[in-house]
Write a structure and sequence with these properties.
Layout lengths: L18 E5 L3 H7 L4 H22 L3 E8 L7 H24 L3 E5 L7 H14 L6 E8 L1 H15 L8 H4 L13 E4 L18 E4 L9 H12 L9 H8 L1
Parallel strand pairs: 1-2, 1-5, 2-4, 3-4, 5-6
Helix pairs in contact: 1-2, 2-3, 3-4
Bound molecules: 3-methylbut-3-enyl trihydrogen diphosphate (IPE) (2 copies) and magnesium ion.
Magnesium ion binds next to loops.
């Protein structure tokens, strides 16, 4: 199933956001502050993921999407990249059975061709195993870039319609890598930076943004609740006026 752009219908912000997308930032600074190597921050970051997945499930979030490795993160020192890949593999090895038992559907999106064959195979297996689960859909964005996503969608669309010269948004959207999910309602970035860093560029068009200074390893269920509370105070208008929305409700 593909979703209509969420900008078509105004969701009720009083309820829990259906889809939360997170840039998990600040692992390195969390570790440096404690005189630890950066990788210790990444390891602690995995613990935070576990907690937030659990908290999202109990709060009734349907889709949780987390940015684990950007297409730009290859620019980091080679040893940090290697350690991040190793952590990713270990986390998959350790967590997939538990996720499956918790009815979680796991998706990994991004340009996976750059990962080594073993990791690619583990990813495919994890997705296959959890494909029919009906609980939380957890998407991990790995070697993901918003521009990459749009371009791969354009290329798929072109391949499907050779010779066509113009396309509509509705023809492109089903080819985006997260076409199985509604667009995010709430975006959270930890670590204090206020930027999108080439995350879901297309899908974030009308998402409510929430930035916090908290480093990702310190982000817990209470912090998630604060972000959801902030979301619940927003008025999503998608171009309309407040008066129009009030008229719709009454
Ligand atoms: C986010 O934390 C994790 C990844 C990008 C993999 P960082 O590693 O960017 O942490 P800081 O921003 O250096 O503190
Ligand atoms: C963004 O974090 C990517 C991930 C969290 C995976 P970065 O810390 O790499 O972002 P920039 O490059 O500093 O904006
Ligand atoms: Mg960072």
């Amino acid at each position: 199933m593909t979703f209509l752009s969420s900008t078509q219908a105004v969701p009720d912000t009083l309820s829990v956001p259906r889809h939360i997308a997170i840039i998990m930032d600040g692992n390195g600074r969390w570790a440096t502050k404690r005189f630890l190597p950066r990788v210790a921050g990444h390891a602690q970051g995995v613990e935070a993921v576990r907690k937030i997945v659990e908290a999202s499930t109990t709060r009734g979030v349907e889709y949780l999407t987390i940015f684990a490795f950007s297409s730009e993160n290859w620019r980091r020192p080679a040893d940090e990249v290697t350690l991040l890949m190793r952590l990713f593999m270990t986390a998959l090895e350790r967590e997939v059975a538990k996720m499956h038992a918790n009815n979680i559907r796991l998706k990994i999106v991004g340009d996976l061709t750059r990962f080594d064959k073993k990791l690619q195979e583990m990813i495919a297996q994890a997705e296959r195993k959890t494909a029919n689960n009906k609980g939380l859909t957890l998407t991990i964005c790995a070697n993901y870039g918003g521009r990459w996503d749009i371009m791969q969608a354009v290329n798929k669309m072109l391949a499907l319609h050779p010779g066509a010269t113009t396309f509509s948004e509705d023809e492109l959207a089903p080819h985006l890598s997260m076409a199985y999910a509604p667009e995010p309602d709430l975006f959270i970035r930890t670590g204090g930076e206020e930027r999108i860093s080439n995350f879901l560029l297309w899908q974030l068009a009308y998402t409510e943004l929430f930035f916090t200074q908290t480093y990702w390893p310190d982000f817990d269920a209470k912090a998630l609740d604060a972000a959801i509370e902030s979301y619940q105070q927003r008025e999503r208008r998608f171009g309309r006026t407040s008066a129009q929305l009030a008229a719709q409700v009454s």
